[in-house]
Design goal:
Layout (H helix, E strand, L loop, with lengths): L6 H24 L2 H6 L2 H19 L6 H23 L5 H27 L30 H20 L5 H17 L4 H26 L7 H28 L2
Helix pairs in contact: 1-4, 3-4, 5-6, 5-7, 6-7, 6-9, 7-9, 8-9
Amino acid sequence: VHFSPQTTLTSEMAAVIMVGLLMFACCGIEGQSWVQGAITKQIIFPLGMVAVLVLQGIFLTFPYAGNFLTPLLVFALAALALFTIQLLKKTADAEQLMSWLAWGCVASGLLNCLAGMAQWLEYTPWEQSTYFSWLYAVINRNGIWGFFAQKNQFANFMMVAACASAYLAAQRKLSIYLTIPILLSFSFVMTLTGSRSVLLYLIGISVYCVGVFFINQRQAKRTAHATPSVFINRFSSLIFVLILSLLLMQFALPVINRL
């Protein structure tokens, strides 16, 4: 039993609040008529799960509140995110919306990267801080976990952030001179987690990039004057850099630890 709020619980609370504020901001741009158009069948499922979890919290007994509050907040966040995306689609096309989401993933990835590096270096002065101790989960085991309190979830998110940075660079919205150091940093942190799921991501992304590259080349040859998509080529190249950096870090980390 945890007597203080876990990082997963407080981070979900913060995420729900932030997405909720963004939703209300979107509603205020064009008026309340947006709300009716944004209620879609995709939102019904997470809202239904929220209702089920609320009933469980009322009528069932749990060792501590986080047992049902954490999944409840996850589904509430999913519903709010879907609702907000529907609102944003009213004023932004798919490409612009994807860019906004990618920028958010990269920014959050950088913050988690800094937290992970601080944990690796054992520089954690906020553990004794009255105001910031709730942001950091003290876990007595190997590896790092950022603000996620679980290394596999942390590695999963860092991979998403790395792919988001590659997407922005392929769209020429992020400088290649910034993208390469970001990919190297994210790869190093993912290696530090010790999570074996990173290797599964590596295999999946490799298969995806090879498939997309050859499909793109074949489609270009079928059309008389078409040229291969610059975006696909740039994105595939950056994912290849990510794969190489992950492989490099797997061999470099033991050397670094001996220094």
